[in-house]
Amino acid sequence: MPFAHTTEAVLAWVHGWSASRGAAEPVPSAWGFTIDVGLHGHVMRHVLHSADEAIVRQLTRDATAPGVWLKAFVAPETLEPWLAPGWHLAGGPGFLMSAALPAAPAPGHVPEGYEMTTWTRGGVTRALVRRSADGAFAARGQIAVTGHTAVVDQVETDPDHQRRGLGRLVMRELMEAGRAQGAAACVLGATPEGRALYEATGWRVLAPLTSALRGPDPVGA
């Protein structure tokens, strides 16, 4: 088991995600972390390592500006009734997942007609797969290593290039990059679609991951 408990995995995810996205250093509190992100529609986020109704009600009541996100490791039907007015579930259901990094992963094979490029900058390694003929985007992903753990982030395959093993290729490349930089375990936040890919490559679900967003006030409110 890569992590002794879910709280440990949450800590790794928070710090790795912040590094991957170039966000501010997470600020810890008794209930979790606050991260300044600084994007339109995603100004900041609260991550609760143990969701509690009273805490969620207080946080969502106090945060009245649009663009504040909240991440909690409970099912959507649990979180939604706790949200203050002006908040709504966003992004669909998700999952916190983890995997141990293999000591010697199997070598990857780039399918015919594609080429893959990888680079590391600012502590984040990215993998990009393009179609050889015209350079069209096919798949990508990135990994941020923070000590002995790493976060895999923003993995996607273009719909026109799915079912060709490109997602697995990217995952294999990222996990090897993490292992080479000293990480022993990985964590990520997955969509239901991504979960199938990750489970096929050795990842397992630790907890549900539900997102909520503070939207703009209704017109006239």
**Strand count, sense and closure of the main sheet?**
12 strands, mixed
Mean pLDDT: 93
Task: Tell me how many strands there are.
Answer: 12
Oligomer: single chain
- Order of helices and strands, N to C? HEEEHEHEEEEEEHEHE
- Tell me the distance between the termini: 49 Å
Rounded to an integer, what's the Rg over CA atoms? 18 Å
Percent in strands: 35-45%
Classification by helices and strands = alpha+beta
Principal-axis shape: globular
Helicity range: 10-25%
Low-confidence stretches: none
Topology at a glance:
Layout lengths: L5 H16 L5 E2 L3 E8 L2 E7 L4 H10 L5 E5 L3 H4 L7 E3 L4 E7 L13 E8 L2 E8 L5 E10 L2 E9 L8 H15 L4 E6 L1 H9 L3 E11 L7
Describe what you observe in this structure:
The protein is an alpha+beta fold and 221 residues long. It is 24% helix and 38% strand. It is built from five helices and twelve strands. The protein has helices spanning 6-21, 53-62, 76-79, 166-180, 192-200; strands at residues 27-28, 32-39, 42-48, 68-72, 87-89, 94-100, 114-121, 124-131, 137-146, 149-157, 185-190, 204-214. Strands 1, 2, 3, 4, 5, 6, 7, 8, 9, 10, 11 and 12 form a twelve-stranded mixed β-sheet that branches. A hairpin with a 3-residue loop joins strand 1 and strand 2. The protein starts with 5 loop residues before the first helix and ends in a 7-residue tail after the last strand. The relative contact order is 0.21. The model has no long low-confidence stretch (mean pLDDT 93).
